[in-house]
Amino acid sequence: xxxxxxxxxxxxxxxxxxxxxxxxxxxxxxxxxxxxxxxxxxxxxxxxxxxxxxxxxxxxxxxxxxxxxxxxxxxxxxxxxxxxxxxxxxxxxxxxxxxxxxxxxxxxxxxxxxxxxxxxxxxxxxxxxxxxxxxxxxxxxxxxxxxxxxxxxxxxxxxxxxxxxxxxxxxxxxxxxxxxxxxxxxxxxxxxxxxxxxxxxxxxxxxxxxxxxxxxxxxxxxxxxxxxxxxxxxxxxxxxxxxxxxxxxxxxxxxxxxxxxxxxxxxxxxxxxxxxxxxxxxxxxxxxxxxxxxxxxxxxxxxxxxxxxxxxxxxxxxxxxxxxxxxxxxxxxxxxxxxxxxxxxxxxxxxxxxxxxxxxxxxxxxxxxxxxxxxxxxxxxxxxxxxxxxxxxxxxxxxxxxxxxxxxxxxxxxxxxxxxxxxxxxxxxxxxxxxxxxxxxxxxxxxxxxxxxxxxxxxxxxxxxxxxxxxxxxxxxxxxxxxxxxxxxxxxxxxxxxxxxxxxxxxxxxxxxxxxxxxxxxxxxxxxxxxxxxxxxxxxxxxxxxxxxxxxxxxxxxxxxxxxxxxxxxxxxxxxxxxxxxxxxxxxxxxxxxxxxxxxxxxxxxxxxxxxxxxxxxxxxxxxxxxxxxxxxxxxxxxxxxxxxxxxxxxxxxxxxxxxxxxxxxxxxxxxxxxxxxxxxxxxxxxxxxxxxxxxxxxxxxxxxxxxxxxxxxxxxxxxxxxxxxxxxxxxxxxxxxxxxxxxxxxxxxxxxxxxxxxxxxxxxxxxxxxxxxxxxxxxxxxxxxxxxxxxxxxxxxxxxxxxxxxxxxxxxxxxxxxxxxxxxxxxxxxxxxxxx
Length: 837
Prior knowledge:
By secondary structure, the protein is α+β, with helices and mostly antiparallel strands.
């Protein structure tokens, strides 16, 4: 909302010398968001005066252009006996290319030394064979509008030559640009901001909405409202004999322009002016184009309306219409129709001022992608007491500025809704805010914002909110009003006392340790938004019955493409890889740790609405928790490109499924648990390169190389790998960490090469070796895999290094050989492995 300070002063008795920035500071202190203070007209400097054209001579030059060589009287102070060559003196000679003026017209002249918008400096210069000693200005050159077809011609009685033109043009003004929050809809008007400014300075306020109004009754245009819930009030006033050619006065056009709207015609400018003044959207109909009674009703499916922007809109049954016998003539609360539009031939105007239900207007405006100044106000709530006053104000201005007469009577369908009084404790603001607010200050503050306050008891208040404040419904709403009028800066900042405890929990310590270990392994944290869409789940190739497709839908998503809460970390992490690859960074290793949201099957539980005047009960907390989806914490990694880059130190190595599994080992090692790996098939991983991750018998996640179809669908580099596991399933308990025993006796190493079928996972062979070797085995490591003619088709050779050590003695060759043979026997029994010859 843009509010010129001169307009604000008409309704609030602000100190005459108070600067606009001080007013902005006071309004900010009262809770309004004043974004900027614009100094309109400040880019026009130097002498700008009124001038009267004494004579002119038209000259056509060789370039085909006709100019006027003018003698212009700019007042005794500025003429200085510098008459034009061969014309009246004293005056100034000025070359002008416009031809929309005559001798005797009053014009606006920039004298040498003036600077116009854009840094255009005016000086006496020779052009078209004459020295032009100034410039006769158009609106566009002064930044007053887009009209550059001709110069500004003022009313003859607007002033005298030499007078300051800036004052006549209302050129300079300070404009407050206010970002109005949804709960402050009344501040989408000069009336509302002036009320706040008057309260902030403690000065008188004059309400422009208080007019002498006729009693509603017959005599005006007939109106029927079929949907009183969506249209609580509808008022009309009619003006006849209006002169459509009457121009808007300059002060009116300038105020409309400074408020952020484009001047069009007198009738349109007046309706926009009153909307900005009072906050009540107004619409005017050409009475001669109306057909029968005005009816407010819901649209029928498929009905069409051509709005004022000349766009044909197909309507839905939720749209509220204004109609006559010819059909729809307006989209209620959003935009009027073109069939009854005011035009240059309009002599009779039906002025409409109505009140429409907020959510209905909001839905309609968004459905048709048609935001407007009217819908912006209705969405935030318009004073329901204003329709008759606003329609009367428009009618009065139309008659005053364009002639004609107001027909007697006023049509009003509906009425003012009643607001129940709210019973509050007089000391509630002090108790809630923590600042001492005396009872008389509480009453004074509430009355200052328009409330009616009764005191049935010394410690009780009955507060009735004003009609323009639909947001004041709860006792704590009134507490906020008292606090903001004193000033939010008067509310002390008091840090809460932290409750005693033992610091971070076991889970938090483990999570920190795990994330540090993953980061130390070369993975970069890449957090993402916790949202996803069905298209991402489709790209991952998840089956229709996959639990990850069962997601919670957001009521108001940031993006329509991602309306769901994520059930897996992979979409966001893989999107990060894709962005990096698209910018040339193919070699990437990223990780994310965060919550996923896994709702239970069945109908969602409706959460309770918690109270604000007391602490929720244990039962209310439990019901709230029951309505929330499960939120396990997961950790995922994703890799692409080279895991080790080549260089002078040797060849590089591409990232593979083994690195994804190794990331899981890093996590479990940091958490102090043992990881078991088994072969599996689980989307979105490649069936032949997918591992299920277990801690004990608990499945904690999966790792491996992504399926080629998934890689292609998501635009990822080839052979991209990923791992995702659930940290909450690691089973970490709050137990003392037992340091491993370190033996001082030497290690004995035995290598074995086992031949197995290609389908046998190496992890199964390793598990069998561990189980068969017994307690003397310290570690087992796979160091070579071979496939070829020496082991036969369909087979592979797996070479393992076995390390044996005892804590109390040096092992003999016989002991290590026996342990090795037992390990090989167990592998042969479980996996069919045989020693390679």
